[in-house]
């Protein structure tokens, strides 16, 4: 082993991954070769510098997991049968498939001859979507379907309408290739022998399903014979939604059950595209601010930057909320007691007491009615006075005639 | 070494469960790898937003193709291999923007250590600038060797090149970094 080869091994000696035999040989060399030992010190210093830089490197964004979970969607397991084109058989199948595809394309071209030269570079509106799709698949997204001229090879500028559309389309394609973004909610009504223990069971079940209890309203009966009811809202990972509903149904008698789904795919794609563009805009503004010399210019850009950042924060919060709704389904459980407390038969004293209370209640009611009538009388007294006066005057005139 | 083997065994088991669609296993696996993957990709791309996108793609790939993991290498080698190739793809796609606008910028500092950042800011910035001057391939091998502590054959599997190339690449990357640091006056402190 020459000197350079020994130097090759030093980084791996320091990170402890050298095979034991090589390590022993190298240690022996280090003892006898002062220059190599010096080199080792230098490599160690570099390593420490890199580790120090790494220690203060930024952490991954908090929303990374939520984003990935939304991307993989609520759909079941990933593709289980690996399609590794490693064996000769698979290669042969792929080759035959490719050959047949090429032959089919050639046959189609023969049946439908190519349009005249003037049309070839300017596709009809009907063929444009097909061509756009083909270009997207072949990695030419963002380029104009018109192959003549410089514009054909220039990518759309970031932030432009074309770029926004391209981002939206690619995001939509990506999302539809995985799964629709569905937010599911369910309700289930249950009659249970004991609501209190049912609440505890629901809590336990939710924990087992890696969910969380988000709301609980426990209405214990205030009077004997009343029903004990409770409403619980839980949030569970979307892939455990159906399983959780099934497990809940086993807790008691099901009185009602409903499931609803909201498709948030378009909203999520739109929000993502808008966020991406706003972040580009933010980066552009920051660069402009770095270049701006005049204070007024800096202030103007700062104001615009503040507005952009506010939009980013709002949109980000909205997007996070939607992704959470997709990742976690909500289930509302209405619990109701099946037993009622038996009412004891009333005794004579209780009956007399009830009669006395009823009499008092009626007397109070009558007194109130009388008072109300008196108020009515007082309120209508002026009209009554006028009527009496008119009657008196009429009677007097009649008596004068007589 | 025993702890590493235990971790690998656990990760293999998690991958087997992920292949069967176990989302809980995926979340555990994700938590174990998100920092390593994100920082490795960030080291190559020098763009936090892009690094987050690529890291997200890497983990989606793990979810989709966990069944392809044959167990011949360590799970970390497999995952970092995906991250390496995704990052290089992203770098190729964004080459103009990344190289012209962002490569020379130092990485943003972590917000959770303001005092340490204040003390180390000058040194850190110089090291970042020196790393930014290296090629992505050199940055990759330095990170894999010194920060993530991979062996030569593992690095060869991650970056997809022969063992000999790894040795020479680490050697030249080390020299290039040292030269870049020397030019910024840091060499004396580093040694």
What key attributes describe this structure?
heterodimer, A: 402 residues, alpha+beta, Alpha-Beta Plaits, 13 helices, 5 strands, B: 191 residues, mainly alpha, 79% helix
Can you give a write-up of this model?
The complex is a heterodimer of chains A (402) and B (191). In chain A, 62% of the residues lie in helices and 12% in strands. By secondary structure, chain A is α+β, with helices and mostly antiparallel strands. Among the domains of chain A are: 1-56; 122-178, no CATH class; 182-262, Alpha-Beta Plaits; 266-325. Mean pLDDT of chain A is 74; it is low at 80-92, 111-168 and 171-178. By secondary structure, chain B is mainly α. Helix content of chain B is 79%, strand content 0%. Chain B contains ten helices and no strands. Chain B has helices at residues 2-19, 23-45, 48-65, 75-93, 95-102, 114-132, 136-147, 152-159, 163-183, 187-190. The longest helix of chain B is centred in the first third of the chain and has 23 residues, at 23-45. The two termini of chain B are 29 Å apart. Chains A and B meet through helix 1, helix 3 and helix 4 of A and helix 2, helix 3, helix 6, helix 7 and helix 9 of B.
State the helicity of chain B in percent bands.
over 70%
Order of helices and strands of chain A: HHHHHHHHEHEEHEHHEH
How much is the radius of gyration of chain B in Å? 17 Å
CATH class of the domain at 182-262 in chain A: Alpha Beta
On the 0 to 100 scale, the average pLDDT of chain A is 74
**Silhouette of chain A:** elongated
What integer is the average pLDDT of chain B? 79
Number of helices of chain A: 13
List the topology elements.
The complex is a heterodimer of chains A (402) and B (191).
Chain A: H1 3-14, H2 20-32, H3 34-55, H4 64-72, H5 88-111, H6 117-120, H7 128-137, H8 161-178, E1 182-192, H9 195-208, E2 212-219, E3 229-237, H10 241-249, E4 253-263, H11 265-291, H12 295-327, E5 328-337, H13 348-401
Parallel strand pairs in A: 1-5
Antiparallel strand pairs in A: 1-4, 2-3, 3-5
Helix pairs in contact in A: 1-3, 2-3, 4-12, 8-11, 11-12
Chain B: H1 2-19, H2 23-45, H3 48-65, H4 75-93, H5 95-102, H6 114-132, H7 136-147, H8 152-159, H9 163-183, H10 187-190
Helix pairs in contact in B: 1-2, 2-3, 2-4, 2-7, 3-4, 4-8, 6-9, 7-9, 8-9
């Amino acid at each position: 082993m020459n000197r350079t080869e020994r130097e090759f091994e030093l980084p791996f000696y320091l990170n402890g991954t050298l095979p034991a035999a090589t390590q022993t040989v190298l240690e022996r060399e280090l003892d006898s070769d002062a220059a190599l030992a010096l080199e080792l010190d230098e490599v160690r210093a570099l390593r420490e510098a890199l580790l120090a830089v790494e220690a203060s490197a930024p952490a991954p964004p908090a929303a990374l997991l939520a984003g990935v979970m939304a991307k993989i969607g609520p759909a079941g397991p990933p593709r289980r049968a690996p399609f590794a084109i490693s064996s000769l058989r698979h290669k042969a199948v792929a080759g035959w498939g490719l050959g047949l595809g090429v032959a089919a394309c050639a046959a189609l071209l023969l049946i439908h001859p190519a349009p005249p030269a003037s049309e070839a570079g300017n596709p009809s509106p009907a063929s444009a979507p097909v061509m756009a799709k083909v270009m997207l698949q072949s990695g030419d997204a963002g380029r104009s379907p018109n192959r003549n001229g410089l514009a054909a090879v220039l990518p759309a500028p970031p932030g432009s309408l074309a770029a926004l559309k391209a981002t939206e389309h690619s995001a939509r394609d990506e999302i539809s290739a995985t799964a629709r973004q569905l937010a599911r909610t369910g309700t289930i009504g249950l009659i249970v022998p004991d609501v209190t223990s049912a609440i505890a069971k629901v809590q336990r079940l939710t924990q087992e399903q890696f969910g969380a209890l988000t709301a609980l309203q426990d209405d214990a009966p205030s009077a004997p014979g009343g029903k004990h009811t409770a409403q619980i809202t839980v949030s569970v990972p979307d892939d455990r939604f159906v399983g959780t509903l099934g497990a809940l149904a086993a807790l008691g008698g099901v009185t009602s059950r409903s499931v609803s789904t909201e498709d948030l795919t378009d909203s999520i794609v739109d929000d993502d595209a808008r966020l991406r563009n706003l972040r580009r805009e933010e980066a552009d503004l920051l660069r402009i601010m770095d270049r701006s010399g005049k204070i007024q210019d800096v202030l103007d850009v700062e104001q615009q930057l503040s507005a952009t950042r506010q939009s980013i924060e709002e949109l980000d919060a909205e997007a996070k909320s939607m992704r959470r709704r997709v990742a976690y389904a909500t289930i509302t459980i209405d619990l109701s007691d099946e037993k009622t407390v038996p009412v004891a038969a009333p005794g004579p004293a209780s009956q007399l007491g009830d009669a006395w209370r009823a009499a008092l209640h009626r007397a109070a009611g009558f007194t109130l009615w009388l008072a109300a009538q008196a108020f009515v009388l007082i309120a209508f007294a002026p009209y009554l006075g006028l009527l009496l006066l008119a009657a008196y005057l009429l009677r007097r005139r009649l008596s004068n005639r007589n | 070494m025993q702890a590493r083997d235990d971790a690998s065994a656990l990760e293999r088991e998690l991958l087997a469960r992920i292949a069967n669609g176990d989302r809980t296993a995926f979340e555990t696996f994700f938590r174990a790898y998100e920092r390593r993957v994100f920082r490795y990709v960030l080291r190559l791309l020098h763009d936090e937003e892009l690094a987050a996108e690529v890291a997200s793609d890497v983990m989606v790939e793990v979810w989709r193709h966990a069944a392809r993991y044959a167990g011949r290498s360590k799970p970390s080698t497999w995952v970092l291999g995906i991250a390496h190739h995704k990052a290089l793809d992203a770098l190729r796609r964004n080459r103009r923007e990344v190289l012209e606008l962002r490569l020379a910028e130092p990485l943003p500092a972590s917000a959770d250590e303001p005092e340490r950042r204040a003390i180390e800011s000058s040194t850190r910035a110089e090291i970042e600038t020196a790393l930014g001057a290296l090629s992505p391939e050199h940055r990759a091998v330095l990170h894999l060797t010194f920060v993530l502590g991979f062996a030569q054959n593992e690095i060869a599997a991650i970056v997809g090149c022969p063992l000999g190339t790894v040795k020479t690449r680490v050697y030249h990357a080390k020299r290039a970094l040292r030269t870049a640091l020397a030019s910024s006056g840091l060499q004396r402190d580093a040694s």
